[in-house]
Amino acid sequence: MTPSLLRAVRWVQDGVRNQLWPLPTLAIVLAVVLGILVPLLDLRVDQHLPAVLDTVVFNGDPGAARTVLDAVASSLITVTSLTFSLTVVTLQLASSQFSPRLLRTFTQDLFVQVTLGIFLATFTFALTVLRSVRSPDEGGTAFVPRLAVTLAFVLALASVVALVLFLAHLTRQIRVETMLLRVREDAASTLGTNLVRRDASDPTYAVPAPPPSASVLRASGSGFLTAVDQDRLLRAAVEADACVLVGRRPGSFVVEGTVLGRAWSSDDGPLGGEALDRLRQAVARSVRLGAERTGAQDVGYGFRQVTDIVNKALSPGVNDPTTAVHGLGQASALLAAASAYRLGPLVLADDQDRPRVVLDRPTLADLLELVVAQPRAYGASDPQVLARLYGLLADLAVHVDDQDRAAVADQLRRLDATVARQDLDDVESARMAGLGRDVREALAAGPGAAQ
């Protein structure tokens, strides 16, 4: 699968999985179809079932069939309400205790969607089959869809198992360690989908600078920039024989009418007339805006989620530095993973290897600032948090190359200054000084020193 197709699939997947309704709705439709077809199958095969199977399937009269189906339907709608209530409580807990940005992580939980789908499908199937049960006093021949009633019973048993597994899953999901791990895995997936590894054979291009005569591209709407259709934008730039710079990165909030980027001719001349109008329209169609940030192309979104958990843990109302330390550990692993990719502006070239499109992307320094700056300010008085920040810089120092080593050194200088302003005792001060030396030694040793 090509990188562009992977990005498209992830964008669609992110949009669908963020909603709780698609999978349960599909399950309901499937249950209605089965509820109609299985009784029709009963009419054809009921008198020809093997003896072994005949003893297993439902053998009651129409009244017993109605009782079973009614019990299944009524109990499953109650269980579904309970499941939905527990999910809502979990969402409230995640929002208030950790971060509102975690709500997308829970709504995208496939296990929750499958569980709701099983419950609703069982309820719908039982209700649909109930229509086909006929008693002799209702006119005509009595009919009991034995296979359908048996299937409804099996689905009810599966729902009971699903409920037990859902409760176990829910108790695991509300743990902060599980949340942090899920966020890190999603962020790592975003990195792999949207970025190129440093050791890849793909060519690199110099970032072209817009000339003074470049035309301004303005945003056609307001909202978070969620994705950019790179292929469409590249085709439009080639057709206009132009270069396009999108100066706003995914995740940033764009206001209608503000500068989104610039465009200029491939010979550094101005663009004008119909070519510029078509290019502006293509840019407006290529840039997707939404009401909230997503992880489809937003490389910094996962870092923002982890940092929000750390900040919340360090707030006076929560005061949970242990959670902050755990969050910084996951942020450290995420930064180390990001250092293996080509960060910074992304340059797209045409078939003749001429740069055509420049897309703004965060550098490692930007991501490091995002992860370190606020926890350093909010946890300045806690030695454990400060120690973990030193550990984060030491972990990252053995992964970065010469280009990014300056960013780590700058964060170390600022962390040292923060520690110097704190009223620490002699033991804590000596410990911080030793941790600072470890970071400097790791920086001096260079990448791979841990081996």
Plain-language structure description:
- The protein is 62% helix and 8% strand.
- The chain has 16 helices and eight strands.
- The two termini are 34 Å apart.
- The strands form two sheets. It has a five-stranded mixed sheet with strand order 1-5-3-8-7, with helices on one face. The protein has a three-stranded antiparallel sheet with strand order 4-2-6.
- The model has no long low-confidence stretch (mean pLDDT 91).
- A hairpin with a 5-residue loop joins β7 and β8.
- It folds into three domains: 172 residues, no CATH class; 76 residues, Aldehyde Oxidoreductase, domain 3 (Alpha-Beta Complex), CATH 3.90.1170.30; 127 residues.
- It is α+β, with helices and mostly antiparallel strands.
Overview in brief:
This is DUF2254 domain-containing protein. The chain is of the alpha+beta class and 451 residues long. It is built from 16 helices and 8 strands.
Brief descriptors of the model:
451 residues; alpha+beta; Aldehyde Oxidoreductase, domain 3; 3 domains; 5-stranded mixed beta sheet; 16 helices; flat
Assign an overall shape: flat
Largest sheet: 5 strands, mixed
Strand segment tally: 8
Distance between the termini: 34 Å
As a percent range, the share of helical residues equals: 55-70%
Report mean pLDDT, rounded to a whole number: 91
| Alpha plus pi helix count | 16
| Oligomer designation | single chain
Strand order of the largest sheet: 1-5-3-8-7
Give the class from helix and strand content and strand pairing. alpha+beta
Radius of gyration, taken over Cα atoms and rounded to an integer in Å: 29 Å
